[in-house]
Design a protein that fits this description.
Blueprint: E1 18-20, E2 25-28, H1 31-42, H2 66-79, E3 85-94, E4 97-107, H3 109-112, E5 114-121, H4 130-145, E6 150-156, H5 160-169, E7 172-181, E8 184-193, E9 206-208
Parallel strand pairs: 5-6
Antiparallel strand pairs: 1-2, 1-9, 2-3, 3-4, 4-5, 6-8, 7-8
Length: 223
């Protein structure tokens, strides 16, 4: 049977990757979902007096082109995905509605076996444990399916919500960095997680469509 010319998975295997948790569905970004995500970003991500991000992209929320910029950032990440370096931005959905983004990234994964994570949720979706659930999803993918040896993340010292997620999952301190944030010094706390220290969730992660993605992500064949 001839391949379906309308099937994007033939040339872009990430289009078929799906992660499922008890409440959420995570898929690598697509254009329709990105448009919905940009709308959600306009609804607000954090209080105006706070800045949880190293790159203060939300400061432009009231400017023309902000929503388009959210999409352009994701397009750049998508265009640069390859075995040497990748950043996969998963759109997080609950009941079909896009609520935020969960990123899983790596450099020379086949050699270093290390990933980093980052994420955000709309303010309306915060406070229900979804941040923990979506990070558990990509950590489960990294450790149990990709064979990662380490996972790293970072958060500013005053980003209590992100640091609590890291604590719940078993991360340990991995150093401190000083950055300028809105013209003032701020401490960025790095954290590190290993498969042995990871506090696994009680639920089982559902994963579909991973096989064709392995080569694109530079993932070694399963042992």
């Amino acid at each position: 049977m001839a391949p379906d010319p309308a099937d994007p998975v033939r040339h872009w295997p990430l289009a078929g990757l799906v992660l499922r948790t008890p409440r959420l569905v995570l898929r690598p970004d697509d254009d329709v979902g990105l448009a919905a995500l940009a709308d959600r970003a306009l609804d607000g991500v954090h209080p105006a007096e706070e800045m949880p991000f190293l790159e203060p992209w939300t400061d432009g929320a009231g400017t023309p082109g902000f929503a388009r910029g959210v999409m352009q950032y994701a397009w750049r990440c998508r265009a640069e995905v390859g075995p040497a370096r990748w950043s996969v931005n998963f759109l997080v959905r609950e009941g079909g509605r896009v609520l935020g983004m969960q990123t899983l990234a790596a450099t020379e994964f086949g050699i270093l076996r290390e990933v980093t994570t980052g994420s955000w949720l709309t303010r309306a979706a915060q406070g229900r444990g979804l941040g923990t659930e979506m990070r558990q999803a990509v950590i489960g993918l990294a450790f149990e399916r990709l064979g990662a040896h380490f996972a790293r993340t970072s958060a500013f010292a005053d980003n209590v919500a992100s640091r609590r997620v890291s604590d719940r999952l078993g991360y340990t301190p991995d150093g401190v960095e000083r950055h300028v944030r809105r013209g003032r010094p701020a401490l960025l706390l790095r954290s590190r997680l290993t498969p042995e220290a990871w506090r696994r969730p009680e639920w089982t992660l559902g994963v579909a469509g991973l096989g064709p993605c392995r080569e694109l992500l530079g993932v070694p064949p399963p042992d």
